From TrEMBL:
A biological process from GO: protein transport by the Sec complex
Stretch forming the signal peptide: none
Descriptive protein name: Protein-export membrane protein SecF
Major localisation: membrane
Chain segments carrying region Disordered: 317-371
The protein's role, per its UniProt record: Part of the Sec protein translocase complex. Interacts with the SecYEG preprotein conducting channel. SecDF uses the proton motive force (PMF) to complete protein translocation after the ATP-dependent function of SecA.
Lipid bilayer topology: Multi-pass membrane protein
Amino acid sequence: MSKLGTLGARLHHGEIGYDFVKNRKIWYGISILITITAIVGLAVRGLHMGIEFQGGAVFTTPKNMSVSVSTAEGYAEDASGHDAIVQKLGDGSMRIQVAGIDTKTSDTIKDRLAEDLKVDAEKINAELVGPSWGEQIANKAWQGLGIFLILVVIYLAIAFEWRMAVAAFVALIHDITITVGIYALVGFEVTPGTVIGLLTILGYSLYDTVVVFDSLKEQTRDITKQNRWTYSEIANRSINSTLVRSVNTTVVALLPVAGLLFIGGGVLGAGMLNDISLSLFVGLAAGAYSSIFIATPLVADLKEREPAMKSLKKRVLAKRAHGGDPDEGQDAPVTDDEYDEPGDVAAAVVGPRNQPASRARGRGRPSGKRR
């Protein structure tokens, strides 16, 4: 842990680092590939919506059932004529979910299940959800998500600037698309818990992004008054200075979520935990990735298109080309026809500042040596 702390301090002070912004095209390509896979999975397999969204019935059996999940699923499908989802709970009871049935059909299915499972019908609990109520829940979920995204963009545009708001919005859409695509590929049921998980991970994603943006805003204040760094290089230093913090917070958040997903849902059989834990697990990981590899490099891309940033880049690169000492304050001459391409940004300089040797050392002493 001490080595990790030392690494974080060295990253924060710029002694070491990785050029995330320079390699942004790689990260963009990876994200596009993952996003396309998620969209294809969503289009081919679709989302497995819970009865809260499409209506249906949920039957809960008594505890300590000896019947297997596959057998109970066959009984439910034969009794209802619809696809059924069966989950075995931690106490040995079963949760049998059948979509698209009404109250009269529910009573018939309940009696058939009691007969097949060899239990008293009175011991099977039945809960009905109407399709109109499920449609209202779905509409409210979409409205909540839309309002959340609008408020986020407005806040970031006011607190920072519109380019950062756009980059954060793209990162959020990236996280939502990947999470929803994973749900389609895995086949997990989408419930109100899933929606809660999505809104939660968007908050975590924004937290990491805002931390980097705040550092970037502070370091780029009066950026045009210096000739040492380009905007992209300062953006890269901001990512490196907050990298360990982002990784630490993400790992700490993922550990309990992993416990819910793999232990609670897999080992203990609490299937309802899968609904929220999968969205949290995938979304937290995607959010940490997007804040580092997507949001900040995208801000750098947008800012480098500004005339002031283009002019700054010309001065910085021209000064380096003429061998100017970055620690000295003089400006190197530059012409307007040099370095016009935005892709000609030099690699970010990450490392300790090398102070020039004093030219006055030894003056005034006959031997030129220290006394």
